[in-house]
Each structure stands twice: as structure tokens, then as C-alpha cells.
């Protein structure tokens, strides 16, 4: 029993102490603000906190006013104004800082506007917007109302009530909005008309480009490509439909054998057109493509459709001739008969020419034409047989002329070959003599190429060495054959020489181009490295002599620039292209670091100038990091050099004065008139 009494006594003492200590535990004394939205009372959800943060960010973007929102449970027994001002002093508030402090448990608040808001506007904003939201425990709404009020006050300089201060203000706003809307509409119509005209001009230019050449289409704008693809697939589809109908009639008239080339062309056109339509379907579906993907698809559609059109055009003349051949068959047979008679008359002179060539040149030199006269005689005999067959078929009725087209084609082919054979005999003498005369010069030319190849192969790291060696060896062999067989087979020798010379020249040209490009790339790399080294060194020296005022962003960019420069040096000899990319990246990063560092120094000068007056030497010492102790004690929110000056002045916390230079309890020197608060 006595033990139970002791336990109960202890529990009662603990409970009493807990009750007595609870207020001190929950108390929230003034403190230095580190975030724009501080929710020690845990009244905001994640989404609500994001909404408040967004309003604070929009306010800063609109007029560079920094609103700090604080929710605590209690003001620690202090009045709202004392708690708020102590917090603002501890947080080094400046003219562009505003505070909304809410003690949720006390149901008290305090709102301190920035100096750009008048006291009357601030009172109106508290009375009509902030306090009603707090009264209904709309914690988010109160902060958003404060941010909105500060935005409107700084933007328009008007009173901040729940509505406009007068009917005239509303009317003025409506008129202004109407004027702006009209101007926007006029501008939109003008831009639309201009865009239409530009697009028409681009389409007209695109129609002049070869649609089968992807490289040429690469110069066309994306909109013009889209318009061109729509036009060309429609035109080609119409052409395919028309060709398909005419082909069906031709097959009935001439049969599938004679019309096979045209059937193949139409089939290929249909396949290509189907590919083009498939690409258009991909472009027209609901799945969006990147501009690069869209350009690739449009180019594919245009090229496929254009090639299908070209294939049809290539067969159009032959198709027309086929349709006309039966109608004009008698006239055509008369012309072929005359051609055969003329060729037959050339047989005897060709025999005499060939006999004379055998007396002048060796059998090897004449091997290509030795049997030409006999072959030509055989072709003429075959043509005569088919002429008889064709004339017999022409005399028959139109529906009984099967084989006439084949006979005419056979006559045309045999007569064409006979003419080629006889022409070769007549030109053989001139060709052989020309080859004999050109051999010395060709040998000299190819020998120069052989000497150049030897020089290149003697150099280290010669590109395409195996290919160059093979071309050089072939050229050497061709020269040896020319010296050996030039008199007996001049045409054959000359042909082999010219081929070996062309192959060798091609390889030498590619090597020369490679070396020229390598030299150009080396010059570019040296310039890129020099530029990067100069920029990195310049920024490094700038930061080193102003280290007391430059934050992490500039230093981070500089460190990355150094890393890129080291990578460029490492790739210098093994991969010049990558080295150039790294060097250019280092230059870009160094330039960014310089810009950030310049901003940091300017911000530091503005912040410290009032404290040091005209003493430029002391100010310079602080900027240069010589009087670093004072900066660390009084500036950068008591956290040393963490964060950049750009962060402090571009949306971060205001920088306080160095404490070593004294000042009142209001360390920022800020006049806090205009603020107010109370119970809600």
C-alpha cells in the first residue's frame, strides 16, 4: 500500500511538472529565418506549403519583394510586434523584405510590409484580406493574400482593399484590358497573315527542290515539308490510279509479257506510295513527335512518293510507244526494211577495213573486233526473217496479230546490234592509234602517282595505308604491262592503265583531304584550348582577388570549367574532336562563372557600401576576403560563405551588416513603420 502511494505521488509530480513546463517547451522565441516559408506549427500540408511558396516566388519575380511567412505555435509571451521585429532584426531584413508571422496557438499575427507599400495600403490589406483568412483558419489564404497585396501595391501603387478603391478604377482597368485585348487581336491577325505568306513562299521554294534528294530537303523548313508531303502524296496517288487503269487495258491488248515492265513500275509505285501514306498516318495520329522525328518522317514520305512518280514517268514514253506500235506497224516495218538494206551495204566495206587492220595490228589488238563482220551478217539475217513474219502478221485482222510486237522488237534489236558491230570495225583503227599515242603520257602520269604513294607510305600514321598500298601495286603492274604489251595490245593496256591511275588518284585524294582536315582541326583545337585556358585563368584570378564576395555558383562553374579543360588536354592527341568539344565547354562555363562572379561583387558592393562610407580600402578588403572574420560573423545569415550573392539578392535571404562595425539592435537599419497585427 505504501509503495502504491509512492508511485502515485511520483506520477502526480511528473504530470504537474509536465503541465508547468509545457508552455516553455512549446514556446517559439524569435529566430533567424532560413526559408521563405517556415511552418513550425505544422498547419500546412505539402500541397498548401507549395501554394504559399509559389505565391512568394511570384511576388519576387514581379517586383523583387521578399515575403517571409512564419507559422509558430506561440510568440513566447511577447507581443506580436516585439516578436516580429526581433525576428526581422535577427534575419537582417532590408527595404525589400516583408514578414507575415502567425502564432497559431495564440491566435495572434503580425504583418510587416516592404517599404514600398504605404501604411494605409498595409492596414487595408491586413483588415480586408489577411485577418479574415486567419480568422477562418485559412492559413494558406492569408499568406497568398499577403503576397498578392504586395504584388498589386508595388505594381500599381493603388489601395489594397478587397476590391478597387473606386468605381472609376474598375472602369479604367476594364478599358485598359479592352485596349490590350484589341491590340493583341490585331497583332495576332497580322502575325497569322505574315505566317501564311511566309509559308506560301517557303512552299513555292520547296517545290523547286529535288524531292528525291534527302539532302536537298534538309534545307526546307518543317512547315513547308509538311505542306509538300501532303501535295505530293495526293498527286502521286492520282498518277498511280490513272496508270493502273490504263495498264489494265494494255494487258488485255498486248498480253502480260509485253506489258511486264509497266506492270512492275506500277507495282513498285504502289508500294512506295503505301509507305508514304503510312508515314502520313504516323504524323496525323494523336501521338506527338519531336521536330527531329517529324522532319525525318516527312522526308521519308516525300522521297518515297517522288521516287514512285519518277518510276512511272520513266515508263511513260515506252508505254506510249507500245500503244502506238500496232497502229503504226506498217510504217515502222518500211523504216526497218530501209535500215536493214543500208546496213547490208556496209558489210563488204567493213570486211575490207578489217583485212587492212589485220595487216597493221596484231591479233591481240584486234581481238575485240575480229569477228564483228560475221556477227553483223548473222544479225541482218535474223532481222530479215522477222521482217517476213511481221509483214505476214500485219496483213491479218487486228484481233489476229499476236506476235507482231515481238517480231518488230526482234527486228529492232538485231539491226541495232548489227550497226554497233560494224561501227566498232570502222572506229577500231582510230581507237588503237589514239591509245598508242596516249600511252607515253599516261605512263608518266601514273608514275607520278606511284611516286606520291611511296612518299605517303613512308610517313608514319598514313591513313588508309593498306588501300593505298594495293592501289600503288596495281599501278606498278599496269605500267609493267604497258611496257611489255603496249605495241601488241594498245587498247587493252591503255584501259588497264587508266583504271589503275584513276584508282590510285582517288586514294591519294582522300588521304590529302584527310590530312588537310586534320591540320584544320589541329588549328581549331589549339585556338579552342588557348581561349579556354585564358578564360579559366582570368576568372580564377578574378575570384581569387574578390573571394570575400563570391559565392558557390560562380566557383562551381569555374570548377567544372577546369574539369572540362583537363579533359580537353587529355583528349588532345587521341581524339581532337572530343578535345575541341571539351575546350569549348570550358570556355562557356568560364564565361558563366565570370557573369555570376560579377553579379556577386556588385551585390556585395551595394550591401557593404553603406557600412564603410567612403572608405574604399576597407570595402575592398572585405570584397577581397581580407577582412573575412567580420563577413563571417555578420553576413550570409551566420552561415559563413554558404550560398552565392546571387542567391542572397535574387530570391535568398538578405545579407546583414558585419557585426564588428556595430549598430543598434535593429541590425539591418530598417524602419519597421507600417507594420501591424493583433488577434484573429
UniProtKB/TrEMBL annotation:
Domain of life: Bacteria
Disordered, as annotated region: 656-680
Keywords in alphabetical order: Coiled coil, Membrane, Signal, Transmembrane, Transmembrane helix
A UniProt-annotated Pfam family: TPM_phosphatase
Domain TPM: 37-150
Organism: Mycolicibacterium komossense
Membrane-spanning residues: 170-191
Residue ranges of coiled coil: 515-571
Ranges of Low complexity composition bias in the record: 660-671
Signal peptide boundaries: 1-27
Name under which the protein is recorded: TPM domain-containing protein
Amino acid at each position: 500500500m505504501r509503495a502504491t502511494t509512492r508511485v502515485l505521488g511520483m506520477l502526480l509530480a511528473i504530470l504537474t511538472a509536465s503541465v508547468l513546463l509545457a508552455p516553455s517547451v512549446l514556446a517559439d522565441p524569435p529566430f533567424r529565418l532560413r526559408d521563405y516559408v517556415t511552418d513550425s506549427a505544422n498547419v500546412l500540408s505539402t500541397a498548401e506549403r507549395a501554394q504559399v511558396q509559389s505565391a512568394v516566388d511570384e511576388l519576387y519575380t514581379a517586383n523583387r519583394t521578399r515575403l517571409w511567412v512564419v507559422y509558430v505555435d506561440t510568440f513566447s509571451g511577447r507581443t506580436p510586434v516585439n516578436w516580429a521585429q526581433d525576428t526581422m532584426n535577427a534575419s537582417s531584413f532590408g527595404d525589400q523584405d516583408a514578414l507575415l508571422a502567425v502564432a497559431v496557438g495564440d491566435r495572434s499575427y503580425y504583418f510587416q510590409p516592404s517599404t514600398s507599400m504605404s501604411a494605409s495600403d498595409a492596414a487595408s490589406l491586413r483588415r480586408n484580406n489577411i485577418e479574415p483568412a486567419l480568422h477562418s483558419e485559412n492559413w494558406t489564404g492569408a499568406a497568398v493574400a499577403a503576397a498578392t497585396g504586395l504584388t498589386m501595391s508595388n505594381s500599381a501603387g493603388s489601395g489594397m482593399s478587397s476590391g478597387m478603391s473606386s468605381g472609376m478604377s474598375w472602369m479604367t482597368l476594364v478599358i485598359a484590358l479592352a485596349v490590350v485585348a484589341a491590340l493583341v487581336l490585331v497583332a495576332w491577325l497580322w502575325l497569322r497573315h505574315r505566317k501564311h505568306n511566309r509559308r506560301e513562299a517557303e512552299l513555292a521554294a520547296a517545290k523547286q527542290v529535288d524531292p528525291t534528294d534527302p539532302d536537298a530537303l534538309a534545307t526546307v523548313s518543317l512547315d513547308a515539308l509538311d505542306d509538300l508531303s501532303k501535295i505530293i502524296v495526293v498527286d502521286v496517288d492520282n498518277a498511280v490510279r490513272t496508270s493502273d487503269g490504263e495498264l489494265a487495258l494494255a494487258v488485255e491488248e498486248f498480253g502480260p509479257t509485253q506489258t511486264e515492265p509497266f506492270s512492275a513500275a506500277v507495282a513498285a509505285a504502289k508500294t512506295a506510295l503505301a509507305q508514304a501514306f503510312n508515314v502520313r498516318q504516323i504524323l496525323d495520329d494523336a501521338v506527338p513527335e519531336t521536330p527531329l522525328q517529324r522532319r525525318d518522317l516527312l522526308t521519308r514520305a516525300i522521297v518515297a512518293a517522288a521516287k514512285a512518280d519518277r518510276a512511272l514517268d520513266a515508263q511513260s514514253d515506252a508505254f506510249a510507244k507500245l500503244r502506238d506500235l500496232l497502229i503504226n506497224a506498217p510504217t515502222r516495218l518500211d523504216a526497218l526494211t530501209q535500215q536493214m538494206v543500208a546496213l547490208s551495204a556496209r558489210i563488204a566495206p567493213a570486211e575490207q577495213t578489217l583485212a587492212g587492220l589485220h595487216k597493221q595490228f596484231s591479233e591481240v589488238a584486234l581481238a575485240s573486233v575480229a569477228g564483228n563482220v560475221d556477227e553483223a551478217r548473222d544479225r541482218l539475217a535474223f532481222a530479215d526473217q522477222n521482217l517476213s513474219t511481221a509483214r505476214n502478221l500485219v496483213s491479218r485482222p487486228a484481233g489476229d496479230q499476236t506476235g507482231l510486237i515481238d517480231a518488230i522488237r526482234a527486228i529492232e534489236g538485231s539491226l541495232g546490234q548489227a550497226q554497233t558491230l560494224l561501227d566498232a570495225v570502222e572506229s577500231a583503227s582510230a581507237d588503237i592509234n589514239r591509245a598508242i599515242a596516249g600511252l607515253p603520257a599516261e605512263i608518266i602520269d601514273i608514275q607520278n602517282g606511284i611516286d606520291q604513294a611511296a612518299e605517303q607510305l613512308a610517313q608514319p600514321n598514313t591513313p588508309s595505308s593498306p588501300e593505298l598500298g594495293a592501289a600503288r601495286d596495281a599501278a606498278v603492274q599496269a605500267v609493267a604491262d604497258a611496257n611489255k604489251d603496249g605495241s601488241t595490245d594498245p587498247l587493252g593496256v591503255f584501259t588497264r592503265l587508266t583504271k589503275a591511275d584513276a584508282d590510285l588518284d582517288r586514294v591519294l585524294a582522300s588521304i590529302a583531304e584527310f590530312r588537310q582536315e586534320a591540320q584544320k582541326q589541329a588549328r581549331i583545337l589549339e585556338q579552342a584550348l588557348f581561349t579556354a585556358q585564358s578564360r579559366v585563368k582570368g576568372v580564377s584570378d578574378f575570384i581569387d582577388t574578390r573571394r570575400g564576395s563570391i559565392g558557390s555558383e560562380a566557383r562551381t562553374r569555374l570548377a567544372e570549367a577546369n574539369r572540362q579543360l583537363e579533359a580537353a588536354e587529355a583528349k588532345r592527341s587521341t581524339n581532337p574532336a572530343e578535345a575541341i568539344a571539351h575546350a569549348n565547354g570550358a570556355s562557356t562555363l568560364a564565361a558563366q562563372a565570370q557573369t555570376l562572379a560579377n553579379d556577386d561583387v556588385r551585390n556585395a558592393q551595394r550591401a557593404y557600401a553603406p557600412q564603410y562610407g567612403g572608405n574604399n580600402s576597407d570595402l575592398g578588403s572585405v570584397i577581397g576576403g581580407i577582412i573575412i572574420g567580420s563577413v563571417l560573423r555578420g553576413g550570409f545569415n551566420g552561415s559563413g560563405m554558404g550560398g552565392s550573392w546571387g542567391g542572397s539578392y535574387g530570391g535568398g535571404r538578405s545579407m546583414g551588416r558585419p557585426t564588428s562595425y556595430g549598430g543598434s539592435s535593429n541590425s539591418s537599419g530598417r524602419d519597421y513603420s507600417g507594420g501591424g497585427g493583433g488577434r484573429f
